[in-house]
Each structure stands twice: as structure tokens, then as C-alpha cells.
Amino acid sequence: MYDIIIIGAGIVGTMLARDLSKYQLSVAILDKENDVANETSMANSAIVHTGYDPEDNTLKAKLNVEGARMYEQLCKDLSCEYEKVGAFVAACGKQEEQHLDVLAERAKQRNIPYKIYTGEEARQLEPHLADGVTKVIDFYTTAIIYPWHVALAACEVAVNNGVELYLQHEVTSITKCKDSFIIHTTKGDFETRMVLNAAGVWADKIDAMVSHLHSFTMHPKKGEYFVFDKDADFMKHIVFPVPSEKGKGVLVVPTVYGNTLIGPNAEESEYDTGTSNAGLTFVKQSIAKTVKDVPWSKVIRTFAGLRPSSTSKDFIIAEAKDALGFVNIASIESPGLASSPAISQYVIQHFVTKKFVMIEKKDAIMTHQKPIVLSALTPEERNAKILENPKYGNIICRCETISEGEIVDCIHSTIGARSVKGVKKRVRPGMGRCQGGFCEPMVVSILARELNISPLEVVLDDEESKILFKENRS
């Protein structure tokens, strides 16, 4: 029997797994996907919001501010990308300028630094700001990350410290016993004293397997994005419109690897992650309010992700009243990514330590070593690596300069890639201008060789997404 089982291996689930791995507890994490951070944590704006936006007296406000302040050290410990780029909230006209005053007051109360610019001053810094922008508040400590790198690194730390990870284990039902829960999955049953439900857009389905209160319902919202080539390079800051009741609006986001995102819209969607002409047209039309001269010819792809929105306007972090030991961590929409380190601490403090009063810490390594990134090395370091292993000299992805050695490394890491998407998430082949047109066949071959399977068995993502149908060579 486990002490704790976490359902969901997204950013919240993996943060919990890492933090719990330093205690004398038996912990497992279950996920229905073929990889860690494969859904909401994979497809979002990748922003560490500083905490000026959430309403006062909410968990969102408290945990956003706390979590954002933890991220820089967290990313150092996990050897993950973290870059402070600043966030402009751009007002167009006197009415919207008044809302900037509200945000500034919240920022003062929460000790979040900011600067105020006139429209002309802001355009000196960002020439692509629309002419209609009259005033800007710059939350200059706002940062960007790669969320799945953080989740993967956190999960690898957890597994190295003894947490057990079970992918492709979809939860089908849960039996509530006197002092435990039996979690039934597509690949076997697991008994545990405590359940942490971090199942994202499916959190209400998991809750309903145990609780009869139906205290919340998930209403996922789809957000669609454009991805621009690195040479577009038209915006240095994140740029938001003034937020509304519907959310933060359509924004421009630079990324840590040099691409730029524009999006998202917000359409309620029943687990659909396909892009649509209507949705992308809305994004295009909306961004024109705050940004001009967008180089649309530089778009290299589009994608969509789901926000785990619910009937609650706040984060839901609570024990089910009719199922003690079952804790919902749900409705973790924006600023959920920024809040996730603090969410983990909150859950441990308010629920885990009360359930396991006498838990002790163990010797655990909480840091993660950065894998070799050939393009980040000096010429001398690269030459030394190639002499050590010639696979580092075989460039597979020309757009991103990714070598065969890096791909092999990610397949054989603690939580190794098992799909083309898994390799792409970890070391970026297919993320560049050609979107895998050149390198993907070679990635398939490397996966087949390293996993000792036929190329016909290699998948794009899940078990059903086979890439090749049959061999046609004689």
C-alpha cells in the first residue's frame, strides 16, 4: 500500500511528487498519458505571472505571489530555462488606463515591482506597440520558462528519490475503503492511504469516483496560438491587453528559445485541442488592438491547449468532505503555472502533514543536472564531446542544431522519451522552421534503434498514434 498517490503528472502533480520525495513516504504518480506534462502543462503561454492580476483574498492571489517568487531558485535547482522579460499591460484610452491604476494598487499591496510608461515611452522600448496604446504598466520581473522542462526535471528528481511513476495508467474507478482507497486503472489496481487529485481538466471526473457532493464541474477552455520563427524577433516583452472578466486576453509572448507566440483565445471546449479557422482569426483580429505590423509571414505553426477552468473562479484545493484523505487540487488555470510550487507547499502543509503527523525527512537530492545541449557549448567543449562520443557530431535537426547524441541521451534519461513528441519536448528536434520535415524520419529511426523496436511501432505521441503503416522495401 502507498501512503500517497498523485493522479496527474502535469506541473502541479510533478511539483508535488518532487516535494513529497524528500519525506519518508511511499508515493506514486499515475497518468493516463504516454509522457509527463503532456496536456495543459505542454500547451500554454509559459509565463511566470508575478501575481498582480488575481482578486484579493483568493488562493490565486496568495499562491501566485508566493509561487512566482520561488521560481528563479527552483529553475536553478532543476537546471531549467528561466528568463525575466517583463510584461507590458497596455491600455488604450482613459477608461482602460483606470484599470491600470487598479493593477498598480494591487501590485503595491503585494510588493510586486512595476514601472509606468506613456504610450510614446513604451513605443520607444517596443516599436511594434499599436498606435492606440496610450499607457503601459510594466511588471518587469515577469519571467518565461519552458513548463514541460520544469515538470520533467521535477519528476525525474522525484523518481530518483524513490517516487514511482506509472504512465499509460488511466484511472477508471476508485473504491473508498475504511482507511484507504483502491484506485483501479487500465493496467492494474493501486491501494493508498491518501489521494491527491491533480488530474487537470478531468479532475471533476476523478472527484466523482469518490465523492457524491459534486462540488465543482470542469469546463475546459481551449486557447489557440500562433508560433513565429526565431528570425521574426519583433517583441522583447510580453504584451497583454487590459484584462477583462473573460481573462487576460490575447497576448504576445517571447519564448526562452527565441520564438514568439501570439494567442490565446478562450472557447469552452469538450477536450478538443484542434485549431480552427474561427479561433485563429479571432486571435489575429484581437492582437491588432495592442500590437502593429505583426510579421504573419513568419508563422511556422499553430497549436491549441486546454485551460482547466471550472465552475469556481478560484483554485480548488480542498479535502472532499465525504471522503477524508482525498484532496482535490483542481481548477488550476492561469496563474496555475506560476503558482504551482506554492500550491505544492500549501497541499503538504494543510493536508499531508495533518494526515501523516510523524513524517520525517530523508536524504534526498532535490536538484537536477542539465543534460548536454550541444549548441550551448563552446567550440572547444563541443569538440571534446564529439571526440568522446561521435554521435554528438551527427546533427539530426538542422533548424535547432540538435545532435544524435542529445536525442539518445533523452531516450535513456530517468524518464526517457518513448515517442517522437517526447523527444521533441525534451531536446527540440521538430521545433524549428521546418517543423520536423527534415529530422522526424531520423528521430523515428533513432527511437526504434534505442528502444529495440520496429520503426512500425514508433508512435508520434500515444499508443494509437503510429507513424508508419508498413514497410515497402523489398
List the helices and strands and how they pair.
Blueprint: E1 2-7, H1 11-20, E2 27-30, E3 47-48, H2 59-78, E4 82-84, E5 87-91, H3 94-109, E6 115-118, H4 119-125, E7 135-139, E8 143-145, H5 147-160, E9 164-166, E10 171-176, E11 181-185, E12 188-197, H6 203-208, E13 221-228, E14 238-241, E15 251-254, E16 260-263, E17 267-268, H7 277-287, E18 299-307, E19 316-319, E20 326-330, H8 336-355, H9 379-388, E21 395-397, E22 402-403, H10 404-411, H11 420-427, H12 440-451
Parallel strand pairs: 1-2, 1-12, 2-9, 5-14, 12-20
Antiparallel strand pairs: 3-8, 4-8, 5-7, 6-7, 10-11, 11-12, 13-16, 13-17, 13-18, 15-16, 19-20, 21-22
Helix pairs in contact: 1-5, 1-8, 2-8, 10-12
Could you give the count of β-strands?
22
Beta-strand share of residues: 15-25%
Report the span from N to C terminus.
52 Å
Characterize the overall form. Answer: globular
Helix content: 25-40%
The whole-number mean of residue pLDDT values reads 96
Counted by DSSP, the helix tally is: 12
Largest sheet: 8 strands, mixed
Low-confidence stretches: none
- Gyration radius, to the nearest Å? 23 Å
Structural class estimated from helices and strands: alpha+beta
